Amino acid sequence: MTDVTGKSFISYRRSRANEAALLVSAQHDHGIPTWQDQKDLAETPTADELRRILEDRLTASALLWITPDVKESDIIRKIEVPGILKRTAVNDGFFLVPVCAGGINYKAAAEAVDQQLSADNLQDWNLPKVGGNPISAAEAASVATRVLRRRLDAIDKHLEPSLPLRLSLHTRAKPAFQSGIALMLDWFKRFNGRETDAATWQDVLLPALREVATHIRTLGGGRPVVASGLAAIPAATALGVAFLAQTGQKIAWSQYTSGRPEQLWSLEAIREDAGFVYKTTERDIAAQDLAVLVSVTEDVEPAFAQTPRETLPRFRAITRVSNKENVRFDIKAPGQATDIANVVFEAIRNARQNYRPLGAVHLFMALPIGLAMLIGQLLNTLGSVQTYEHISTDAIGIYRPAALLSPSI
Q1: Alpha helices in 206-326 (DSSP H)
Q2: Cβ neighbours around 63 below 10 Å, total
Q3: Is the overall model pTM greater than 0.85, yes or no?
Q4: Which fold does the domain 7-156 belong to in CATH?
Q5: Pairing of strands 260-265, 225-228
C-alpha cells in the first residue's frame, strides 16, 4: 500500500539534470519531498536500485519529464516508465504527473516512451507542454504546483478522516524525511545561514506558501493543519499570514520547549493573561511607518538600537510590547501564546488609530516560532508588514529586513 505522504520520484534524461535540479528545488519549496536531492542528481543508479525505489511504498508519486532525448534512454523506456505505470495501475494513492518538455508534442512524447503512454492519453490529461527549453524556475514552480494538487488530493482520499494534515517548515537545517508529514517545506538551501534575499522571498518562497495554503483549503477536506519545524521567525510569520484567521482554515503549531511535552499553540486556545502590555512612543511626525518591538524570549531593544539607521526607514512611532514583570518570559500554556498574539495585534491597531496616517508595519520580534505564526494570522488589513531577522554580529546583534508580507483577504 502506497504511503501517500512519501516521496516524489523524478524520471528524467540525464542530459536534463539542470532542469531536474530546478524541479527538485521547486517541489521542496512547495512541501513535496523527493527521492533524490540535488547532490544525487548526477548519479546513475543501477536498474535493480531503480526497480526497488519504484516498488517502495514510500515512493508516493512520479514526475515523468518527457523530452525528445528520452527516446534514447533504455533506463527510462524499459525500467522507469513500466515501473511507474505498474504502480499507477494499482490505484492505491500512487499517481503519475507526466510533462511534455523540451519542445516535444504529445505524439512525439508518446513515441519517446515507446507508446506506453499514448498521445491520446497525454492529451486527455490536459497536461501543459512546458515552453521553456531549458525551463525557467517559474515553469518548474508551475509543475510543482501540479504535483502539490495531486498530492493533497491523494492524501485526503487515503488518510484517516480523523487525522489532521501535518506540515513542517524548515529554514535552519536540512530536514530528514519523515513519513506522515503531508507537506515538508524544505527551504534550507534557499537560505544562507539565517537569511535569504528579498527576491527569493518575493519570487519563490511567498508564492509557494500561497499555493500551499490555497490548495490545502480547497483539497484538504477541511482537515485542521498541525505545523512544526525549525524555521526563521519571518518564515513562521509568513506561514501565519498564508493562513490568516479570517480564512477559517484551522492551523496549530506544535511548539517544543525543553523540559515539557510539545504543546499545540493556536488561536483556538482560550486566552490566558500572560501579563503583556504595550506602549507607543511618537517619533517623527513627518514619517509614515510604525516599528513594533515584541520582546518575549529576549529584549528586542538593544539590537534594534544597534541596527544601522540607514537600513531602516524613519518611524512615525514605535510600539513596544513586553511582559510587565519579566524581560524574558517563558510561555507555559497555549492560552498564554494566544493572549500575547492578540495583545500584539491590539497594540498595532491602537497605534494606527492614534498616529495616522501610517505606512508599513515593521516587526522586530524575539519570541518562539509558534507565537510568530499566531501573530501572522492576525495581521489582516494592516497593509504591508516588513519582517526582520536578528543577525548575531556581536553579543547584541542587529536586525536586517526579511520577508515583506501583504496580509489581505
Answers
A1: 206-219, 233-242, 301-306
A2: 27
A3: yes
A4: Rossmann fold (3.40.50)
A5: unpaired
